Known about the structure:
By secondary structure, this protein is α/β, with parallel strands linked by helices. It has helices spanning 15-27, 35-47, 58-68, 86-93, 112-125, 144-151, 207-217, 251-261, 264-282, 313-329, 345-349, 358-366, 378-396; strands at 51-55, 76-79, 97-100, 131-133, 157-161, 169-170, 173-174, 183-187, 200-204, 221-222, 239-240, 287-288, 296-297, 303-307, 367-370. Helices cover 40% and strands 13% of the residues. Helix 4 (86-93) links the parallel strand 2 (76-79) and strand 3 (97-100). Bound molecules: pyridoxal-5'-phosphate (PLP). Pyridoxal-5'-phosphate (PLP) binds at residues 57-59, 83-84, 86-87, 135, 161, 163-164, 187, 189, 200.
Amino acid sequence: MSNTVIPYGRHQLDEDDIAGVVDVLQNGFITQGPKIPEFESALCSYSGAKYCTVTTNATSALHIALLALNIGPGDTVWTTPISFVASANCALYCGANIDFVDIDPITRNLCANHLAEKLKAAKQNNTLPKAIIPVHLSGLPCDIEAIATLCKPYNIRIIEDASHAIGASYKQQSIGNCTWSDMTVFSFHPVKMITTGEGGAVCTNNPSLKNSLDLLRSHGITKETSQLKKSAQPDFYYEQQSLGFNYRMTDLQAALGLSQLKKLDAFIQQREILVEHYRSLLKETPLILPPALRDRRSAWHIFITNVNFFQNHIENEALRNDLYKHLKENNILCNVHYLPIHLQPYYQQLGFKQGDYPIAERYASTALTLPLYGALTSENVAHICHLISEFFSAIAD
Ligand SMILES: *Cc1c(COP(=O)(O)O)cnc(C)c1O
């Protein structure tokens, strides 16, 4: 067992997935065929959204979601510093400014209380954002209803970055049904809940946003008779009406996504069992485990812990680094989700500094993501937990 490397996350593929892709290769359109609308409508049925546009990846999905809201130079977008850089980069692609709201130390998500304070200050300084991108970190939904209530008086648009959270729910609502947002974005990168190789999606209930998203995905070109500026044109006629991109998913990917989506609920159930196993074996260790909240169900994209052995987080950070190394020496490849975005050199060049978001910084300094994926066995989990317990007993001695 100790010879095989255990990564922090891994995709799950079976014969049906492979057969679905092979079928498209043998019989279908490779791209721009029927699998795209089929996958989009399956994502709508699954999440409860009215419309869905699939794209090359979640990064391009976030990009066109902001453009569909007419975000551009002079506008400001807020997100959380604890996310993958794509949640912030998308604003910069549009020429907009980016700013961050500190996190809640329990859920590790964008904090509604910090948001309330920051909105008050921004109102006074005339620096209110045009849009906000809350992230459901690790698959655990953020407090989206509270965030929406705070944003409403200012007419701030909301895009949920649900790259981790397809299959999660909040107050009985599926993430993706956009009850409290304008749009929700999913990622189908292999490390996420389900995969299309690379892939992303934007869900919305707003038909005019759906129309903009479709145009932006494909060069701003339309062939829809009802939308053409010139009427009574021959069949081959098309119009470019705005400046879009080629952010199209292929039919091969959509076929894989259709097959993967059928298994998503089973994937989450497997992960829930492994999480319970982790909880029971780690409860005596000085690791802070993810919260279990009654009003929401996590999709369990990743299993985040925090080292909490010393009083002092600087000592805990050194210990986290040692624990990471100890596990790596035993072929367990953990990770940290995430290094705060505002501390990346590129963002420091934009003017962000150490100390800007203290809760996020303290969280990240002691965070460690343990392996979690469907093919992980309960023996694997027991082995990992044994290594962790051993590590802490050696320190305590
Ligand atoms: C993975 C991820 C993205 C980007 O997804 P891609 O499909 O790789 O472009 C965006 N936001 C978050 C929170 C992610 O984890």
